[in-house]
Design a protein that fits this description.
Blueprint: H1 2-27, E1 31-35, E2 47-51, E3 54-60, H2 65-76, H3 88-95
Helix pairs in contact: 1-2
Length: 118
């Protein structure tokens, strides 16, 4: 039973991290879109882009939660976060890691973002 509660605790922690990342994006006026990427007629990868002057982050909604966290954190790292409130959990472990260390559970899952300007 210990394993089961640990998985539940990990899931709750991941959901808390995701919510905090989404709040940081909102403070930056960045729109997050969870879409089914295979539905497009052309290849689309998770990442950020500018659409009509507005910054958006697109994430495949079918990805596991840990991958969504990794993608969102990777894209938010590209922004100037100095004047934005970032919860300590995110600042210390995800968005502004000291000495280049990241939370091992949140490392990049081999995805790459596309920067497009329209």
């Amino acid at each position: 039973m210990t394993t089961r509660s640990t998985k539940k605790e990990d899931r709750l922690r991941d959901e808390e991290i995701m919510k905090a990342l989404e709040e940081v994006a909102e403070r930056l006026s960045v729109q997050i879109h969870y879409e089914e990427m295979k539905a497009f007629e052309f290849r689309v990868e998770d990442g950020s882009c500018r659409v009509k002057g507005e910054t958006s982050i697109f994430i495949d909604r079918k990805r596991p939660l840990k991958e969504k966290i990794s993608i969102l954190a990777r894209e938010l790292k590209k922004f100037d976060l100095e004047d934005i409130y970032v919860p300590p959990l995110l600042r210390e472990k995800i968005l502004v890691p000291e000495s280049g260390q990241t939370d091992p559970g949140l490392e990049d899952q081999g995805t790459s973002g596309n920067e497009a300007v329209s």
